[in-house]
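Need tokens for this chain, all 208 residues.
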Amino acid sequence: MKVKVSTCDRSSEGRLSQNDRLPIEIDVADVRFSNRKFWLAHADLFAQLEELHPGDPGEVSGAELRVSEKGEYAWLTANIGKGDVPASHCMGYLEGARLGTFLAGCLALVTGIGTHPARTEETELLNELYPEAYPSRPSGAMLVCDGRTLKLCFGSHCFGVLYGAKLRSFLERALARATHGLRPESGRPARLESEGKNGRAVNIGEAA
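Here are the structure tokens for all 208 residues:
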């Protein structure tokens, strides 16, 4: 899936020019949107999953993880499609406290910050897309993170995986979305602290 942006002038250095307008959706792998100011933009945030056993390095599987809205309205969907065609089937969604808690746990495993040594995996079942018909009914799809990879699974089949810098980039940005504007006393997960400039702890849930 390609990033959708208005027709505009872009610099050759991979940065947005002053004439660029905000995109409809942001690919976490797109270096043009690596600045923190885009983390909380009014645009969907998505990451294309790669094949677990690729024929070629970086081969995408056709699945994606997508985060829409922010704060208490943030929700994550797992979708499958192929190539430039928008993902047409939703395998399930995650929202509310479960979303923030899962993302924070995954990021803790990836960074080694704030996780219990005995905890080696985070898993979360996704819900059916239409809760009005089936309130909180699991779809059968599951997200599994072991600190090295984040997999989208259904039974024994893996629909795709995130790893390395792309995994951390997605988790940081998605968690920033999920915790934006929320206070610990609200009952939602507190913002996870990560190391910022000069070793100073910063809240990654805050906008730049």
